[in-house]
Amino acid sequence: MAFGDCADWCHFRGFVRSPLLTTAFQVASRLFLVWGVVDIFPEVQPHWAFTTMTIAWSITEIIRYSYYAFNLAGFHIYALLWCRYTFFFILYPLGAGSESILVYKSLPYSEQLNIVYYWIQIVILFVYAPGI
Q1: Contact (CB, 8 A) for 105 and 49
Q2: Terminus of the chain with fewer CB atoms < 10 Å: N or C?
Q3: Who contacts 4 (Cβ-Cβ below 8 Å, separation ≥6)?
Q4: Has residue 16 been placed in a domain?
Q5: Count of structural domains within the chain
Q6: What's the pLDDT tens digit per position in 38-47?
Q7: Residue numbers annotated as active site
Q8: How does 81-114 read in b/e, with b if 16+ C-beta sit within 10 Å?
């Protein structure tokens, strides 16, 4: 592999099918929401966006890992494939929108906690829409 050729490394040497950067951003986003927003600012948990985010994440993961498990077992279930790529159109905006709302709702608490963290959250909010 030549220097700069990321065909293997961008896909983390076959561990993930998506590009490594995409996967890293998705994992970082969820970690940030769970530990950097919901855990630090439990005041946002009663908001409806917490419920819709959790539902979107849960349904997505149930479909994704069911699809992977059946494929590994040699079963190719069309209904799971259809669900995986059709539900995406509803669940992805629902989850990402809910995440954005929770970050926004946590801003007053963040500003009281740490002004630098507050501004980091502001930047994240501005990056969220184009990042989707």
Answers
A1: yes
A2: N
A3: none
A4: no
A5: 1
A6: 999 999 999 9
A7: 92, 99
A8: eebeeebeeebeebbbbbbbbbbbbbbeebeeee
